[in-house]
Amino acid sequence: MKPFIPKQHGAWAMLIVPFVLGMALSSFTWVHVPLFLGWLFLYLASYPLLMLTKGKKKEFYRKWAITYGALALLFLIIVVIFNWKMIFFWFCYDSFLPY
User: Fold this and answer.
1) How far apart are CA 68 and CA 74, in angstroms?
2) What is the rounded CA–CA span in Å between residue 29 and residue 38?
3) What DSSP line would sit under 27-93, residue for residue?
4) Residues 6+ apart with CB under 8 A from 46
5) How far apart are CA 68 and CA 86, in angstroms?
6) 16-74 pLDDT tens trace
7) Is the sign of the CA dihedral 78, 90, 36, 83 positive or negative?
8) Phi/psi of residue 53, each to 5°?
9) 75 vs 22, 70, 71, 85, CA distance in Å?
């Protein structure tokens, strides 16, 4: 089975560069690996989810959206287990933490 890769080639730089720069400005930990993989699979799931709304080839896009979404969830659960404060990032980090 050949993986379904989105055709937005310019988005790869917007996906990778901020992550690499953020990792370079902080200290690398092994949690960065599942965080990046979760981020990557969320990006890969976004295109099939968008195409599902258009209504063509629904079964094909549903399969890839579920596959990539499940992989993203798996890796992001690992991140949350080892660094539970990352859950606040998903809920608008600035609005929930007192200063």
Assistant:
1) 10
2) 15
3) ---TTHHHHHHHHHHHHHHHHHHHHHHHTSSHHHHHHHHHHHHHHHHHHHHHHHHH-GGGHHHHTTH
4) 6
5) 20
6) 998 889 888 988 889 899 999 999 999 999 989 998 988 888 999 999 999 999 999 99
7) negative
8) -70, -20
9) 19, 9, 6, 15
Residue 75: what residue type?
F
Angle between helices 32-54 and 58-82 (to 10 degrees): 150
Q: Are 5 and 14 in contact (CB under 8 A)?
A: no
Domain boundaries, the chain: 31-91
Q: In whole angstroms, give the CA distance from residue 86 to residue 7.
A: 30
- Which position has the token pair 């660094």? 83
3-class state of residue 56 by DSSP: coil
Rounded to two decimals, the pTM is 0.80
